[in-house]
Write a structure and sequence with these properties.
single chain; 4 strands; 2 domains; mainly alpha; hydrolase activity, acting on ester bonds; GDSL; globular; (apollo) hypothetical protein; two-stranded parallel sheet; about 180 residues
């Protein structure tokens, strides 16, 4: 989607295609006898560390998230009417906003990434191979903490890396999805 950032028409086409693919997947599940499905909307992308310090990026992320979620809701309504699926929607966007608000109220870090992401670790070919082999054969990636963060202080951060909340927050979402089903 980065390539379509400044082209609203193209961005909307990409969002339409994404929702269409989700509906196609739901149709396939229906055709194979699946009865119960949970679908989550897009979370609050504008707050992730990769966007949260750039006003233009935040505004665009908000606009695209809202547009995608509206299109998805319409697509899910259609699928509920045209299939035998029992589709439950999980509002990940609202949950993310709620968790962010709670973290902010406790004075915890909601703006910075605690760790560098894999892209920051990639270098020359030889280093890339070492990273990939360790990931493939050991299931491990070395964690590189950003200044001010450590394994011990990770609990004070909302974001593990530039895009993802910490494991604790994932577990909180997991528990709510479990309750939904």
């Amino acid at each position: 989607m980065v390539a379509t950032v400044y082209d609203d028409t193209k961005a909307e086409e990409v969002l339409e295609q994404a929702v269409s693919e989700i509906c196609n997947a739901l149709q396939v599940l229906n055709e194979h006898g699946v009865k119960h499905v949970v679908v989550a909307n897009a979370s609050e992308v504008e707050s992730i560390p990769d966007f949260n310090r750039d006003e233009e990026a935040r505004e665009l992320a908000t606009k695209l998230t809202e547009s995608f979620n509206a299109k998805l809701a319409n697509g899910l309504d259609y699928m509920k009417k045209s299939t035998n699926l029992e589709i439950k929607a999980f509002d990940l966007n609202s949950k993310m906003k709620s968790m962010l608000s709670e973290y902010k109220s406790k004075g915890l870090n909601c703006q910075d990434a605690c760790t560098s992401n894999i892209a920051d670790q990639i270098g020359k070919f030889k280093e890339n191979i070492k990273i990939l082999l360790k990931l493939i054969f050991k299931g491990e990636l070395d964690v590189h903490y950003n200044p001010g963060c450590s394994k011990e202080t990770l609990k004070d951060y909302f974001f593990f890396d530039y895009f993802h909340p910490t494991a604790e927050l994932h577990h909180e979402v997991d528990n709510e999805v479990y309750e939904l089903i």
